[in-house]
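R.M. (postdoc): so does anyone remember the format we settled on? I'll just put the structure tokens first.
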């Protein structure tokens, strides 16, 4: 698949078929994330794949509440990938502090999108979820308290094959050459 075609097919999926995702497909998505670039090659991530149905439901329930219900779709996803920050190299930590840039978050974002793009190639859908209750998730998954969960990604077979029209700013409205305009 040509890259722009792949990117045009990537969308946030919030309705999934009740069909488990083959671990081979998930592992190819994780391989794509493993190959993502990172500041000073720090690879500041750990991925936890939750595909056990009972545990997955418990994880999903930590993404919404009776007041905030917009993430209820997570219950339908057959698997959820949790991305935990790992700070393995000192140089990007120091550089990030000096420049006030969270390099590890940029790196996690790149790896997350690699997962989502490979998922499209595998015929899967994904949705990145940033709203969740971190402390209960850490307890559920045995994540050390000093670690941070940065992002969750639901993954599964989309219930619909249609690709929604993307509502994006037209290209001339998002760039300029040589100076800010």
């Amino acid at each position: 698949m040509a890259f722009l075609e792949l990117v045009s097919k990537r969308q946030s999926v919030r309705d999934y078929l009740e069909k488990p995702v083959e671990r081979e497909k998930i592992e190819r998505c994780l391989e794509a994330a493993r190959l993502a670039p990172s500041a000073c090659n720090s690879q500041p991530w750990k991925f936890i794949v939750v595909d056990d149905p009972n545990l997955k439901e418990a994880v999903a329930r930590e993404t919404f509440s009776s007041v905030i219900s917009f993430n209820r779709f997570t219950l339908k996803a057959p698997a959820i990938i949790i991305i935990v920050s790992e700070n393995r190299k000192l140089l990007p930590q120091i550089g990030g502090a000096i420049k006030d840039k969270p390099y590890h978050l940029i790196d996690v974002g790149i790896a997350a999108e690699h997962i989502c793009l490979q998922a499209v190639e595998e015929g899967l859908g994904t949705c990145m979820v940033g709203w969740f209750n971190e402390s209960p998730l850490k307890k559920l998954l045995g994540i050390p308290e000093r670690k941070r969960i940065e992002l969750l990604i639901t993954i599964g077979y989309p219930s619909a094959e249609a690709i929604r029209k993307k509502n994006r700013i037209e290209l001339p409205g998002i760039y300029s050459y040589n100076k800010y305009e």
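R.M.: ...and that's the designed sequence above, right after the tokens. Also worth knowing: DSSP finds six helices and four strands in the chain. The chain has one domain: 21-159.
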